[in-house]
Amino acid sequence: MTTIPACPQCTLENTYPDGDNYVCADCGHEWPMQATAAADDDGAAVVKDAHGNVLNDGDAVVLIKDLKVKGSSITLKMGTKVKSIRLVGGDHEVDCKMDAGNFMLKACFLKKV
């Protein structure tokens, strides 16, 4: 028995592999096979930085964009190095401490050092 996922667009199970993509025969939607393999061996989600490098707890990262802190006048500047990150679940995957305080950041705004 194969484990081909249902279509994410129409949720029907009439899908098949075609090269590097899955294709839905009902609605014609195509999506990459790699997106479904976003978990490592023990089932935890893999968090990647803006350049596709895998992040781990304790890594050092650099901000690739100025980020305004919501509800504050603080701006986190591009190029700021953050040491010893911690990966958490949810929308903002990275928990870190900086001079300006503790922040939860999205991995797409970070680059591994």
Q: Proportion of β residues?
A: 25-35%
**Main β-sheet, in a few words?**
3 strands, antiparallel
Tell me the overall shape. elongated
CATH superfamily of the largest domain: SH3 Domains
- The count of β-strands is 11
What is the strand arrangement across the widest sheet? Answer: 1-2-3
CATH class of the largest domain: Mainly Beta
Low-confidence segments, given as residue ranges, are: none
What features would you describe in this structure?
The chain is mainly β and 113 residues long. It folds into 2 domains: 1-37, N-terminal domain of TfIIb (Single Sheet); 39-113, SH3 Domains (SH3 type barrels), CATH 2.30.30. 0% of the residues lie in helices and 31% in strands. It has strands spanning 15-18, 21-24, 30-32, 61-63, 67-68, 75-76, 81-82, 86-87, 94-98, 101-105, 110-112. The chain has a 3-stranded antiparallel beta sheet, with no helix packed on it. A 3-stranded antiparallel beta sheet has the order 7-4-11, with no helix packed on it. A hairpin with a 2-residue loop joins strand 9 and strand 10 (101-105). It is elongated.
